[in-house]
């Protein structure tokens, strides 16, 4: 951490425990509604922990602080994961957890910027986040702001033409303040992403579009932290992308083993079992 605004309190808890807390909060929210994109939340928890408690510059008490790094959730259905980390970061009060997905809640099942502090954009119509990120990054450049724009997107969005138009634009404008995070869990509603529309070789493809590209295990916190550090410190005048290979439902083995995990079915009696299994693996 380099900014004074990233308070020392954030470092008092290990990233492993932060990721565990994010997974637990996501499961508790899923239990409230009896459903949710819990597989994605469990899979991306390590990346979110490293982002919010190692990489990003923000003020929990002032979510719209002009000097903040912006974290864009292109994939609106991952909102349950973002709510969990926003609560862990103190941007959302944990007391609101039990309102997830309910009428008048600030945490609708698909993320909406007008509802939720810390939610920078309304995602959901897939393939638009990176284009918005490019525009925001250009705007911050014109303001001479040192802030970064992060855009979290799914591997399914790699099949959207708008994603690659944005990638081309980001490289053309030399947006070295833009970091794209790709969650590659190889799952879509209709099956494996690689079987729906294969985007490989992915690292080389991003590099060919003029980006600084890395690919790491998104459930290896040490590798994730190193990738964030490399992306932030790179000196070449080009945007950066980190491809994270993640495991759906990470941390709950009996859910990891399910054949269909994009919208994993969790029976009413399994939420408690999942929380108990997660508890067994709680970091010290």
From TrEMBL:
The keyword Transport is assigned to this record: no
Domain Transketolase N-terminal: 32-270
Upper taxonomic lineage: Bacteria, Pseudomonadati, Pseudomonadota, Alphaproteobacteria, Hyphomicrobiales
Keywords: Thiamine pyrophosphate
UniProt name for this protein: Transketolase subunit A
PANTHER family for the chain: TRANSKETOLASE N-TERMINAL SECTION-RELATED
Species, as recorded: Roseibium suaedae
Cofactor(s) the protein needs: thiamine diphosphate
Family: Belongs to the transketolase family.
Recorded superkingdom: Bacteria
């Amino acid at each position: 951490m380099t900014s004074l605004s990233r308070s020392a309190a954030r470092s008092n808890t290990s990233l492993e425990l932060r990721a565990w807390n994010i997974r637990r909060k996501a499961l508790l929210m899923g239990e409230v509604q009896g459903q949710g994109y819990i597989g994605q939340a469990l899979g991306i928890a390590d990346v979110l922990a490293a982002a919010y408690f190692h990489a990003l510059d923000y003020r929990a008490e002032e979510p719209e602080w002009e000097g903040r790094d912006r974290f864009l959730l292109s994939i609106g259905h991952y909102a349950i994961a973002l709510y969990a980390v926003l609560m862990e970061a103190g941007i959302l009060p944990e007391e609101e957890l039990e309102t997830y997905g309910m009428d008048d809640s600030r945490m609708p099942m698909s993320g909406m910027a007008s509802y939720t502090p810390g939610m920078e954009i309304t995602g959901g119509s897939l393939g638009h986040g990176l284009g918005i990120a490019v525009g925001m990054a250009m705007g911050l450049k014109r303001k001479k702001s040192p802030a970064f724009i992060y855009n979290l997107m799914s591997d399914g969005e790699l099949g959207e033409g708008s994603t690659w138009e944005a990638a081309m634009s980001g490289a053309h404008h030399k947006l070295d303040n833009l970091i794209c995070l790709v969650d590659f869990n190889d799952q879509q509603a209709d099956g494996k992403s690689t079987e729906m529309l294969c985007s490989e070789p992915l690292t080389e493809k991003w590099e060919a579009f003029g980006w600084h590209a890395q690919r790491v295990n998104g459930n290896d916190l040490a590798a994730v932290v190193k990738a964030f550090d490399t992306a932030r410190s790179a000196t070449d005048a080009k945007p950066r992308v980190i491809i994270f290979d993640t495991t759906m439902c990470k941390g709950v083995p009996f859910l990891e083993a399910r054949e269909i995990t994009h919208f994993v079915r969790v029976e009413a009696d399994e939420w408690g079992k999942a929380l108990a299994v997660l508890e067994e693996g709680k970091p010290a």
